[in-house]
Every structure is written in structure tokens, then in C-alpha cells.
Q: What sequence folds into this?
């Protein structure tokens, strides 16, 4: 499929999702079951993105302290949990990654 | 002695003051958004996207996390339908935002609704809804006729920041050495976004089952692993929540 077609369809779908209640369903209350369903979307999507990134190397599971991204991600989880601060979470994770890389090389 | 109580002049809410208040509230958030857009731009280029398409995606889709994933998938020659499906699932959460702000936009003309829906991102939503609920708590009756200006200010500030940071990222592109591992900031941002959501057992179960499913189904053809994993996680959370009742 042409890249521009992909962009435009993705954009239209995203726009339709954003317009949904503002334009189409107007004053209607969001059905409770739909709300429950949607509440779990980010809680499921985000870990589904992160887990393979930090746990897999070339498709294989790497559960080792030498997997720097895994160690850094765990420290970032700790930082996010304690501080709830996005910037501090990013700084903690990146700093951990760079320190680990510098120590080993 | 004057016993008259001092009359406090009521703060006047004009379209202009509400718009500027929205811009101002958005500014601290932009500190985090700028590097995010910058990395998106650089990453899209290194994934092989033409710079015009990389920039256009920021305007057409205008949703950070889905743009990262779509750029990555485009770089791996994933079938178009899978990219669209994946981005659609990532952006489904905006339906919640749409429902949540609808009471504040229902009186507006359609043109306003189209405009505000376009600007409805995580960051603009968070700022606007915090403002509206705060206002109600403090019983400050800002007339409904002015409220949407705050939303417009927050949304527009974010939009401009996102377009500029994308452009800077595209421009820097390959100049950022891969050894810095800047792409890792995306995972870190996702971690920061997801942790506050894990407030109860169903949410934690949804997160862990989706993560594990993503590992198991990583090798699935057509890069469908993410879609399958997300649906499993949502299903687990939903099922647990339903059995609570």
C-alpha cells in the first residue's frame, strides 16, 4: 500500500475516534461497558510495546543483567512508580543506560 | 470608618484570557513533548521515511505513540492494513477523551467541534479536563461560551510544538549517533505513561498479560503480534472487571 494512503487512512481513523463523542454521539453518555473496555486500552497497549523492546534481542529472550535496556527499564519503572514524573523517569532510564554502557566498554 | 466590605472585582473571563490561560497551562508539558517530537522526527528518517511523509504524519495523524509505531512498521515493510489496525488500536483511548470533553463542547458550532476534536491529544486533554474539573470544584462559573478557548489555547500550543520538534528531528535525522540509544526514550515515556494507570489488580493483570503475550506472539506473521497482545490484555482486564460485579 502506498505510504501516503496509509498515513491518510490512519489519520482519518484517529480523527474519527476523536470526533466520536464530540460530534457524532453528542450528549449521549458513554456506555459503562465501553468505558471499562477503553480504560484497559492504554494499560494493555503500552506494555505490549515495551516488553519486546527491552526483553528480546533478535527475537530471543535475554533475561540477563547484561541486557542494559532491561536493567535501565526496571530502574525507570521504579522511578515512575515512586515519582509519577515523566521527565524524571526518562532521565533515570537514559542515565542508567549510559552508565551501564560506559562501565562495560 | 468604612464598614462596607471591600468588593473584590470579579475576575473577567474573556475569550482572550481563557485562550492565554490554556497556552500557559500547556507550556510545562511542552518541555517533555519537544524531545519526544524530536526523537520521532529522527527515528522516522532512520526508519527510511521520506522527510515529507515524516512531517506530514505529525499533521495528519498527530498522535505521538502511534506515529512512533507506524514509522517503525513502515520501515520494516509491514502490510498497510496491519499498520492502520495497529495505529487504530493505540489511538482508541482517544474515544474516552472525546466522551469526557463532550459536555463542554456540545453547545458549539460544528466547525469548533471539528477543530477541537483534531486537537484532542493526551496532553491537551489532560490540561483542559484538569482545568474544567478544578473550576467546578472552586465554583468559578466561567461562562460556557468561553470555555472552549482554553482548550483551543492548550491544543494549539501543543500542535505548534509538535510540528516544530518533528521538523527539528527530521533535520537532525542521522546526525544523532545510534550509540546514544535515543530510541530508548520512547519505551521510557511509555513506562511513565502506564505506571499511573496501574491502580488496581485488573489493570495490572491487563498490563502484564499484554506484555507477556507480546513476547509470545512477537514472531507472528505480518507484525500482528502487537494487535493480538493488546486485545488479550484488554480482554483480561475487562473480564476481571466484569467478574467483580
A:
Amino acid at each position: 500500500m502506498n505510504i501516503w494512503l496509509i498515513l491518510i487512512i490512519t489519520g482519518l481513523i484517529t480523527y474519527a475516534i476523536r470526533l466520536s463523542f464530540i460530534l457524532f454521539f453528542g450528549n449521549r453518555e458513554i456506555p459503562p461497558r465501553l468505558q471499562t473496555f477503553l480504560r484497559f486500552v492504554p494499560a494493555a497497549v503500552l506494555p505490549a510495546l515495551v516488553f519486546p523492546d527491552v526483553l528480546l534481542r533478535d527475537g530471543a529472550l535475554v533475561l540477563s543483567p547484561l541486557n542494559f535496556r532491561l536493567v535501565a527499564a526496571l530502574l525507570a519503572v521504579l522511578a515512575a512508580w515512586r515519582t509519577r514524573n515523566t521527565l524524571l523517569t526518562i532521565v533515570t532510564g537514559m542515565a542508567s543506560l549510559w552508565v551501564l554502557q560506559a562501565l562495560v566498554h | 470608618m468604612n464598614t462596607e466590605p471591600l468588593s473584590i472585582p470579579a475576575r473577567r473571563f474573556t475569550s482572550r484570557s481563557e485562550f492565554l490561560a490554556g497556552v500557559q497551562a500547556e507550556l510545562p508539558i511542552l518541555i517533555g513533548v519537544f524531545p519526544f517530537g524530536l526523537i520521532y522526527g529522527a527515528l522516522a528518517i532512520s526508519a527510511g521515511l521520506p522527510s515529507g511523509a515524516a512531517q506530514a504524519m505529525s499533521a495528519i495523524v498527530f498522535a505521538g505513540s502511534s506515529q512512533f509505531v507506524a514509522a517503525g512498521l513502515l520501515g520494516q515493510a509491514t502490510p498497510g492494513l496491519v499498520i492502520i489496525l495497529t495505529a487504530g488500536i493505540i489511538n482508541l483511548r482517544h474515544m474516552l477523551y472525546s466522551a469526557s470533553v463532550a459536555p463542554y463542547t456540545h453547545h458549539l458550532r460544528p466547525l469548533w467541534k471539528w477543530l477541537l476534536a483534531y486537537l484532542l491529544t493526551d496532553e491537551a486533554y489532560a490540561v483542559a479536563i484538569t482545568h474544567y474539573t478544578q473550576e467546578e470544584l472552586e465554583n468559578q462559573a466561567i461562562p460556557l461560551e468561553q470555555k472552549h478557548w482554553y482548550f483551543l489555547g492548550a491544543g494549539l500550543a501543543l500542535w505548534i510544538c509538535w510540528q516544530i520538534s518533528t521538523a527539528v528531528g527530521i533535520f537532525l535525522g542521522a546526525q544523532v549517533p545510534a550509540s546514544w540509544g535515543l530510541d530508548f526514550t520512547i519505551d521510557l515515556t511509555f513506562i511513565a505513561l502506564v505506571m499511573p494507570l496501574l491502580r488496581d489488580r485488573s489493570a495490572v493483570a491487563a498490563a502484564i498479560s499484554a506484555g507477556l503475550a507480546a513476547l509470545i506472539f512477537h514472531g507472528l506473521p505480518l507484525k500482528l503480534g502487537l494487535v493480538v497482545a493488546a486485545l488479550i490484555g484488554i480482554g483480561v482486564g475487562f473480564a476481571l472487571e466484569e467478574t467483580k460485579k
Summary: The first strand of chain A starts at residue 56 and ends at 57. The CA atoms of residues 37 and 43 of chain A lie 11 Å apart.
